[in-house]
Specification:
The complex is a heterodimer of chains A (114) and B (118). Chain A is an all-beta fold. In chain A, the strands form two sheets. In chain A, strands 2, 4, 5, 6, 9, 10 and 11 form a seven-stranded mixed beta sheet that branches. Chain A has a four-stranded antiparallel beta sheet with strand order 1-3-8-7, with no helix packed on it. Helices cover 0% and strands 56% of the residues of chain A. Chain A is built from no helices and eleven strands. With 118 residues, chain B is mainly beta. Helices cover 0% and strands 53% of the residues of chain B. Chain B is built from no helices and twelve strands. In chain B, strands 2, 5, 6, 10, 11 and 12 form a six-stranded mixed beta sheet that branches. In chain B, strands 3-9-8-7 form a four-stranded antiparallel beta sheet, with no helix packed on it. Chain B has a two-stranded antiparallel sheet with strand order 1-4. The N and C termini of chain B lie far apart (41 Å). Classes of the chains: A mainly beta (114), B mainly beta (118). The A-B interface holds A 9, 31, 33, 35, 40-45, 48, 50, 56, 58, 88, 90, 92, 94, 96-98, 100-101, 103, 105, 107-108, 110 and B 4, 6, 9, 33, 35, 42-45, 47, 50, 52, 91, 93, 95, 101, 103-111.
């Protein structure tokens, strides 16, 4: 069974802390994504990666960075967490050249910054 | 640039009745795909249905059908015979193919919360 796993479902962090959100996929996919979900705004793309060590900004990269040191793992980093980064974060992956609907999502990570 | 618009923040339907969730889109990509996802309160994204822009027929998957009107740029989801378990957030999304690769990036709408009443 294919799987995208987000290591932390619920986190509470303090303002200014460095936060790591980890995502691991077991499908040997090249492309991985981090989205942020907020009420009334839907999901917005933060960053994506199309290969190891390769990354590109999405629509809302400010305040975030990412790391892709291994093909199966894509990390989202909040260098200095702020309250406006309280949100639900979703990781996704797809095989490069994959057909239309073969995009897989993790279960989401709810982050609260206090 | 791509844009997806879902104008219904919330919808209510009686159990066993049909409901239509609206989705309009805008893109300059010559080819694209349209998705609908269901998100229960647990947060997981459940893929429901996919429509390619060049598909001749509207997509159907069990109780789900996609009413694709290309000229109107709309891709409404129709759920027939609603069930209590259909209560969830529903997202419309698009993937563009602009000659090269889109890397699988999706653009999402704002979402519609569907509540099914017994």
């Amino acid at each position: 069974d294919v799987k995208v796993t987000q290591s932390s479902r619920y986190l509470v962090k303090r303002t200014g802390e460095k936060v790591f959100l980890e995502c691991v996929q077991d499908m040997d996919h090249e492309n991985m994504f981090w989205y942020r979900q907020d009420p009334g705004l839907g999901l917005r793309l933060i960053y994506f990666s199309y290969d190891v060590k390769m990354k590109e900004k999405g629509d809302i990269p400010e305040g975030y960075s990412v790391s892709r040191e291994k093909k199966e793992r894509f990390s989202l980093i909040l260098e200095s967490a702020s309250t406006n980064q309280t949100s639900m974060y979703l990781c996704a992956s797809i095989l490069s050249g994959g057909s239309g609907n073969t995009i897989y999502f993790g279960e989401g990570s709810w982050l609260t910054v206090v | 640039a791509q844009k997806i618009t879902q104008t219904q923040p919330g919808m209510f339907v009686q159990e066993k009745e049909a409901v239509t969730l609206d989705c309009t889109y805008d893109t300059s990509d010559p080819s694209y795909g349209l998705f609908w996802y269901k998100q229960p309160s647990s947060g997981e994204m459940i893929f429901l249905i996919y429509q390619g822009s060049y598909d001749q027929q509207n997509a159907t998957e069990g109780r789900y059908s996609l009413n694709f009107q290309k000229a109107r740029k709309s891709a409404n989801l129709v759920i027939s015979a609603s069930q209590l378990g259909d209560s969830a957030m529903y997202f419309c999304a698009m993937r563009g193919y602009a000659g090269g690769t889109s890397y699988g990036k999706l653009t999402f709408g704002q979402g519609t919360i569907l509540t099914v009443h017994p």
